[in-house]
Amino acid sequence: MRKAALHNLGCKVNAYETEAMGELLSEAGYELVPFEEKADVYVINTCSVTNIADRKSRQMLHRAKKRNPQAVVVAVGCYVQAAGEELRKDPAVDLIVGNNKKRELPGILEDYFAGRKAEQGEYLIDIGKAKEYEELKIKSVAEHTRAFVKIQDGCNQFCSYCIIPYTRGRVRSRAPQEIIEEARGLVSQGYKEIVLTGIHLSSYGVDFCEEHRETLLGLMGKLDQLPGLKRLRLGSLEPRIITEDFVKTLAGLETICPHFHLSLQSGCDQVLKRMNRHYTTEEYEEGCRILRKWFAEPAITTDIIVGFPQETEEEFEETLRFAEKIGFYEMHVFKYSRRAGTKAAGMSGQVEEAVKAARSDRLLQTEAGLSLAYRKRFLGQEKEVLMEEKTVIDGREYLMGHTREYVKAAMAWNHGKKGQMVRGILREMISDEVLLLEEKIV
Description:
442 residues; alpha/beta; five-stranded parallel β-sheet; 13 helices; 18 strands
């Protein structure tokens, strides 16, 4: 029996696809082993969202070949789409498999081992012309409380800093029934929470023909009816999807978690325009107002890029003030990374790295204060927590999980078990990130 090891780089979509490829290989007779062990096949699901991601992808490919020079090293995913010509010349890489070809991996390997070696690049398509959703699915994941389900691929937005539309192609949506069946199977395996994920989740269904039209909202309504599903959570959303009707309908779903990740990128309208983001800060703020109208204390999280080309100190200060005004639960802060192949890479006024670092530090400091203030608002409230893992805080063992708002809460280690839904009062902060739960098992 051949051994296969997989390594994932990048986003939740990549993580889902890596799990799915692992299941395909296991069903094909491979023994899955940790990436640190010696294997016959190494599969690296690469990322290309930044130059740093490119470099990490190359490093992992070379690390695999160094671990076992006789192994077949397979480069899969977004970096493959962005740098196929470069990888063809890399002696550490034996096979390159692009996006929309991952489900063919067992057959590709079978041909390789049988001596039917294809030309490098045969499994690399023009992703921009792909119209079919690549049907990958999972039956189980390592974590037995929360499962990610991919429902969509590709993006039509073409933000000026982003390479993803060129590595993932245009929007392609997964058939609703396939999603529902996968979710039903996961729930039957004991998963209580499902997170819907995709490259541009808000675009789900736009590519369907009129007679088979489905929307993200309609899909969620169907998933909400699944027996045994306790929680339904959304991945990153486009701010423009947040309308009164959309949120009102969401609020009527029993399983919906009031945790919304609305990608902002900048709190300055001039910067948003240069980024080719299709909303204004006024529209973004209105979306947050609507969410807070229909949900009590919803968690609103976001992504922000600092040091975008031509960003002045005054424009950064606008972003800082806007973040404070919105009062985010969490902000994922990124220093702008120049990415070859994007419009922003050729813009004048590239910001110095030292300036980016200073702005990132200031925004992260603001984020820490906002996040702590948000968590403290739950002190004294009764909340439901899905217990997920063991943790140690100040030398004491706890069982920790998340509320529906994705706030961390913990109780004494010997008072519960993983996968249990616990309701209780959040009594005190036992760290800057974790609240103590005085439990009442439900």
